[in-house]
Amino acid sequence: MHSPLPDDSSSRQQPSLSREQAWQLLTCYNQDPFHLEHARTVEAIMTYLAQSLGYAQEAAFWGLVGLLHDLDFEQFPQEHCHKSQALMLEAGIDPQIIRATASHGYGICCDIQPEHQMEKVLYATDELSGLIGACALVRPSRSTLDMEAKSVKKKFKQNSFAAGCSRPVIQQGADMLGWSLDELIARTLEAMQAYERSNSKRPAR
User: What is the DSSP letter of 107?
Assistant: First the structure.
């Protein structure tokens, strides 16, 4: 499987913001269990892929980007990826986190283009995580653990299934990363399976 090495020189090893502080900020603006679980899922995907793609020292930073990427969506959906920048700036959040979270709305609600590997991974996996989650819900097990990538690919081709998950964005994300769609699905599913395996051992926050 394709394993690109780190391709940017930005240092994101230890974020100035703790995970607890990020969670407190998230829950100031989000109470819907669905949105909170989505945030945790994308956090887990970002952390997992940071480690598997050679960015292990930046894994905590990648995770915070995943956790906070939809900070404004519940309360300010019409200002998505714009209001969050103001909220995070006011909270003194690292500018790299602010930029990275906003970039996942590129071409949809924001003109900040993903440039670094972290930003491209977020852009590619955000919508896909929703599709994979929807695939799990229609399985008898309601789980990703017995799911295969080919099942996700089949649902990807059915535009009426989980129609809110943008196929063009997912494909564009794969293209940005230089991955095939199959590789993107496989990597993201693997990350979500790892999250599900460990989820019962983690505190619900």
Answer: T
pLDDT bucket at 205, cuts 50 / 70 / 90: low
What is the Cα–Cα distance from 135 to 146, expressed in whole angstroms? 11
What is the tens place of the pLDDT at every residue in 105-137?
999 999 999 999 999 999 999 999 999 999 999
Termini Cα distance of the chain: 32
In angstroms, the CA 80 to CA 72 distance is 6
159 exposure class (CB count in 10 Å sphere: 0-12, 13-18, 19+): exposed
For the whole model, what pTM was predicted? 0.90
| pLDDT tens readout for residues 28-44 | 999 999 999 999 999 99
Tokens describing residue 192 = 């979500």
Length of the chain in terms of residues written: 205
Residue (of 33, 134, 29) closest to 86 by Cα position: 29
Residue 197, token pair as written in the block: 């395996």
* Residue showing tokens 């789980």: 143
Taking the CA atoms of 14, 67, 196 and 114 in sequence, report the sign of the dihedral they define.
Answer: negative
Q: What are the boundaries of each domain within the chain?
A: 19-105+114-199
Centroid of chain to Cα 86: 20
